Amino acid sequence: MRLLEKGDEDLPFVCSRGAAQVEYLRVHAAAAHAADMSRTYVLLGPPGGPELIGFYAICMGRITSTDLPENKGKKLTQTAAPAALLAQLARDDRTDKGLGATLVLDALERIAGLADQIGCCGTFLHAQVPRLVDFYQDIGFRRIGKSDAAHPLLWMSMKDIRATFAQEALDAASEDLSTA
Amino acid sequence: MATAIQFAYPMPNRQLTNAGRAGGSASYMRLVATTVECAPNGCEVVLGSSDYAEFQQLLQEPPQVIPGLAALLRQRRQHR
Predict the structure, then answer these.
(1) CB interface of B with A, residues 19-38, below 8 Å
(2) A96 or B21, which is more confident?
(3) Model ipTM?
(4) Using CB atoms within 10 A as the burial measure, which of A154, A171, B11, B77 is most buried?
(5) CATH architecture assigned to A2-179
(6) Extents of the domains making up chain B
(7) Which residue from A18, A40, A22, A43 is spatially nearest to A30, judged by alpha carbons?
(8) What is the pTM of this model?
(9) Are the beta carbons of A108 and A161 closer than 8 angstroms?
(10) Interchain CB contact of B66 with A (< 8 Å)
(11) Which of A24, A88, A153 sits opposite B3 (nearest CB)?
């Protein structure tokens, strides 16, 4: 996985159910990168298959509310939460379905690293199609609100991401000890 | 209260073209062109007060291991 480089936008990439994501890659990713609006990371495949097999884009965003009553707003710990936005994510149709989860995992690790250096309460995304809500919820994103919004807001808290990575580090160390 | 997703930079390409016809500045148009397409729904989410309270509740819960994410990490470790 590496940052988008010049010419990546022209590599063959097939994503029949992600026309908007393909357009982002082809038309907007390089410009957004140059303007420091987002960072796009690409995953290259092994020789013999498609060269570019997946990508995602992340940027900072925030979650807030504009209609908090004054007294209620004071009771809340904050009235706006800075968070990382998983803005785009797509895999090539010719690759394994599990690649989507691999891309999400890489994004979460990257965001968790950044959160040690900049305020970031968690990460969020807008599921563009209903089947993706299940995909992200299976990973652990939580849907915010009960509405039937066209693009539901899905959220994962940084403290939970850190707790999970910490647990994994412990498990990996324990495994290493048991096999040593 | 229903969730309201605010489009932080809601100008689609069609309107961008119209802005160009109306004589919009090139630098402004470049800004909009790059900003709009970073994320289809914009980078800011504005919630209704009850949804925001629910969101704040999530932030205040004690840290917990996320089962799905933990399973992904375990799976990756076992395949290495």
Answers:
(1) 30-31, 33-35, 37-38
(2) A96
(3) 0.87
(4) A154
(5) 3-Layer(aba) Sandwich (3.40)
(6) 13-79
(7) A40
(8) 0.81
(9) yes
(10) yes
(11) A153
